[in-house]
Write a structure and sequence with these properties.
- Helix 1 (about 15-45) crosses helix 4 (about 75-95), helix 6 packs antiparallel against helix 7 (about 240-275) and helix 7 (about 240-275) packs across helix 10.
- The strands form 4 sheets. This protein has a 7-stranded antiparallel beta sheet with strand order 2-6-7-1-5-4-3.
- It has about 400 residues and is of the alpha+beta class.
- The protein has 11 helices and 17 strands.
- The chain has 2 domains: about 5-175, no CATH class; about 190-395, no CATH class.
């Protein structure tokens, strides 16, 4: 199986400066390749430039600018060009599907934060042994950088990435052939229903509280953003020290919320795979769930619109995104694979409107968190009914379910 490891780097002052230069030069390469594609399509009879053509120019670019481009790994520069090529492939795929295209944009130095190395040993080298307390990673043009390795790396290191997050640097290792670590079978199975009031509910009726990390940090984040907005927009090199501190404060709060959300998802998923052999869950399309409602033109007043519930829907969308269902389900799938558990996604339609006793489907069955079947009178918590139906659709045999 595959696994990614993320470790904190502890570079020296000179190495930190070299890492910043590496990001800057790769950003320049990305923007230059994007400009070439734009010019070729706009000025020379709609000609498309492909990755292979731009990769073939790298040797000439490196010899022309040895101080900025020639000092870095050839394979990492190819990975940057592949990154641009994937952005264009995604753009054309969205155009074909008649979705919002999102044409690839130029990247500022502050927004270009990752450099990839396609193979361990080609421009980078992960240097760690099981008995060595100090791990290091070597990057071409930077040197050997110390790594805070908080857990052992298993499997074969395939790709290496260096990433900047605020004022910190990280190395990300993507590993193949990672051995599974199956847990002891428990014989238990369950279905889970994702929610906003409760993060999730099991078919046994157990609730996991929704921590609402984004909501709890919203006031501090809004204050930090107001302080940042007071500064005029300037280029990176012209920003004052106070401006940079204000930017870092906003970024720090965003990182805090992301880490809290990830920590909760990891702990909840680990508890689930420890307790159950088989877990059924809804196959959620979160992108569709958080889509804004379409405007309703007023037929009697041209140019005017009728209320469409956009304000209340925006609040629900924030709550859904704050809960981080997609993050949790992705982590749960990874942990289930590693632990030898079975994860079963099912169709989520009408799971909270279907009576698990008689099978009657009616929107009137649910009123808030209360469920009362309009046909047989069955009464239960709506979230538990949803989890119950998820388990039934997953083919799980549960006690007490007709």
């Amino acid at each position: 199986m595959h696994r990614a490891y993320k470790f904190l780097l502890r570079p020296t002052v000179r190495q930190r400066h070299a890492l910043e230069e590496m990001l800057r030069d790769h950003c320049s390469l990305y923007n230059g390749a994007l400009q070439e594609r734009r010019d070729a399509y706009g000025h020379t009879s709609k000609t498309s430039v492909k990755y292979g053509q731009q990769s073939a120019q790298l040797k000439e670019i490196r010899s022309f600018d040895p101080e900025r481009q020639g000092r870095w790994s050839f394979s990492s520069q190819q990975a940057t060009l592949r990154r641009l090529d994937r952005a264009f492939q995604a753009f054309f795929r969205r155009v074909k599907a008649k979705e919002k295209p999102g044409y690839p944009r130029f990247r500022g130095v502050s927004w270009f934060d990752t450099v990839d190395f396609a193979k361990d040993g080609d421009g980078c080298r992960w240097d760690s042994t099981p008995h060595d307390p100090v791990a290091r990673v070597r990057f071409q043009g930077v040197g050997h950088v110390r790594v805070h390795q908080h857990r052992p790396v298993k499997g074969r290191v395939k790709t290496v990435s260096v990433k900047r997050e605020g004022g910190r640097w990280y190395v990300v290792l993507a590993c193949d052939d990672v051995p599974a670590e199956p847990l002891t079978a428990t014989g238990a199975a369950t279905g889970i229903d994702m929610g906003v009031n409760h993060f999730l509910t099991t078919s046994e009726g157990a609730h996991v509280a929704n921590p609402r990390h984004g909501k709890h940090n919203a006031e501090a984040l809004a204050e930090a953003q107001r302080a940042l907005k007071a500064f005029p927009r300037r280029k990176r090199e012209n920003r004052s020290a106070k401006h940079r501190r204000a930017m870092e404060k906003v970024a720090k709060l965003h990182r805090k919320v992301r880490r809290q959300r990830m920590d909760h998802a990891h702990k909840t998923a680990l508890a689930m795979v420890r307790d159950y052999d088989r877990i059924g869950h809804e196959r959620l399309s979160i992108a569709n769930m958080v889509r804004a409602p379409k405007p309703r033109p007023d037929p009697e007043q041209p140019g005017a619109f009728l209320p469409n519930g956009a304000a209340s829907k925006a609040g629900l969308n924030r709550s859904i995104l704050d809960a981080g269902w997609g993050v949790f389900l992705g982590i749960l799938a990874h942990k289930a694979e590693s632990a030898g558990r079975v994860l079963i996604p099912v169709d989520p339609r009408n799971t909270s409107r279907t009576c698990p006793k008689c099978g009657h489907v009616d929107g009137g069955n649910r009123d808030g968190e209360e469920f009362q079947c309009t046909a047989c009178g069955h009464i239960d918590h709506a979230d538990r009914v949803g989890a119950w139906n998820v388990a039934l659709r997953a083919g799980l045999v549960l006690p007490g379910v007709a």
